[in-house]
Amino acid sequence: MEWVILAVAALLIGLAKTSFGGLASISVAMLALAMPTKESTAAALLMLLTGDVIAVIRYRKAADWKLLRGLIPAVVPGLLLGALFLSMVDDLVLKRSIGVLLLIFVLMQLATKVMNRQPQADDDRPPHRALTVTAGVMAGFTTMAANAAGPVMAIYLQLAKVEKLRFLGTGAW
C-alpha cells in the first residue's frame, strides 16, 4: 500500500509543478503518512527538486527577480529556524506540525480567494516590506521543515498581485 501512496504522491507533485500548485501540499502529507516523517521530507525534496528543475527551464524568462531578491534575505533565517526545529522534534511532532501547517495554508489560500485579490496588470508596486519578510521567513522555515514553501509563495504572489506568467516563473525559482 505504501508504494501506491508514494506513486500517487509523485504524480501529484508532477501535476503541482505544471499546473495545480496546491497538490504538492497533499503529496507532502501523503508521504508523511506512508513513511517516517523526516525521511518523507527527504523523499519529497527529491521529487520537488526534479519538478522545480523542469519548471525553471519552462518559465525561467518569466521570473520576477526583483521580488525574489527581496525575499532571499528573509528566507535564510527561516531556513535556520526550520533546521533548528527539525533537530529538536520527534517524528510525531513533525507529522502533526506538517498537518497543522498544511491546514493553515489551505485556510490562508481560501481567505485570499474570498478577499478576491486578483492580479492587476497596471499594479507594479512592490509588496509591503512586512509581507515580503514574513513570506520569506515562512518560506524558509516551511521548506526546511516540511517541503511546503509552495503554498507560502503562492499566497505571497497572490497578495503581491503578480500576473499569471510572472507568478509561474517566480514561483518556479
From TrEMBL:
Keyword Transport in annotation: yes
Keywords associated with the record: Cell membrane, Membrane, Transmembrane, Transmembrane helix, Transport
One Gene Ontology cellular component annotation held by this UniProt entry: plasma membrane
Entry's localization field: Cell membrane
Membrane topology: Multi-pass membrane protein
Signal peptide: none
Coiled coil region boundaries: none
Pfam families per UniProt: TauE
Transmembrane intervals: 40-59, 71-88, 94-112, 133-157
Superkingdom of origin organism: Bacteria
Family annotation (InterPro entries): TM_pro_TauE-like, TSUP
Family: Belongs to the 4-toluene sulfonate uptake permease (TSUP) (TC 2.A.102) family.
PANTHER family: MEMBRANE TRANSPORTER PROTEIN YDHB-RELATED (PTHR30269:SF23), TRANSMEMBRANE PROTEIN YFCA (PTHR30269)
Protein name: Probable membrane transporter protein
The species this protein was found in: Tessaracoccus bendigoensis DSM 12906
Organismal lineage: Bacteria, Bacillati, Actinomycetota, Actinomycetes, Propionibacteriales
